[in-house]
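User: structure tokens for this one?
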Amino acid sequence: MLNRDHLNILLIPPNDLLRHPIPNRLYHIAKRLAERHTIYLLTYPGHPLAKQRTRYLKAVEITYPARKVDNLGLYYILNYPHIRAAIDKTLRTYQIDVVVHANILPSRAAVDLAEKYRVPAVYDYLDHYPESAAAYYSGFLRTMVEKGVWSLVQKPLIKSRTVITPSYGLKAVVKTVVPEKSIHVIPNGVDPIFKPMDKWRARKTIGLDYSGYILLLYGSLDVWIDVVKILNAVKNMRSRGIDVALIIVGFSHGKLFYRQLLTEIIRHGLSKAFFTYPSQPYEKMPYYVNSADAVLSPVKRLRINFTTPLKIIESLACGVPVVAPDILEYRIWFKQGVFTYDPTKIEDAIISAIRFREETDVMTRIAQIIMEKYSWDKIVERYINVVKSVVM
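Assistant:
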């Protein structure tokens, strides 16, 4: 008889969980699942975005002889036979109870092989994969990539026993493919290292000697964010005598967008009001968040952004307000601390957030609520209950 208190879980992640510059949702979940269950983790050797190992996870690593290429899409296409063979060998060799997958081509292989070996599969549709895959292309090619990926993800959605999404927006997208299937909305969470601390102590810790207002932009810096409007707002605020500067701590998957961002900063005359840092160890990010008067999340209105962003949850857990566009999903999940804007009133939202940051008691209470509601430990309890529900 199967012991549901201990499962053998084959995890097919969206990137190399141990070597990607930014730990994502599945890393936080797998880290906690590994305390009670055995995780068989598919890694992606030679992945274009993978660096040297940056974090630890108690797991059995599943690897394969990879062909190294710089193009992300080409990597998965060229290595698909090796990825499929590695998944097949794992399912044949180990007594896997369930497959949890969150990718495109690797998910196609996973559901086919899971069906072959009669192992249930759970699809964590943590991202709108067609938009994220097409983000690095333009024009006709972008349209073709988006349509192609949408076609590829439908089979994993159909063949998976159940689907998990981090938002109601993505649930609605999935429902168009599998309207009769149970779809569980489980938001992203926050690590306990994100908590309020003194702003000036945080700035001193990161070596930032600046007495004015600080706006922070961090995380993945790519084409799905709209920074030009933010730069215009900062420029206008400074012209009005408001001492405000911008900190950027992040990672650009395609690198081109980051170069374009630096060009825009120079074009807006903000070189002296701009501090840039490379991607930082995850453990240091609370200091950068706490050094800010407000965190910026200037995302475009794409399905990929209709989610529960880690950036927003982590910032609120530190007691730092967030400035973001008026997206319905944000209003559903976050009742206070997120200042939304329309394109003509970004400055008003930023100024309101800066003032709200000074309401220390209020922001501390918000931080406590966020930690209680979005603790990864609580999120994982819900997550494993869904996983267990598909295991006979």
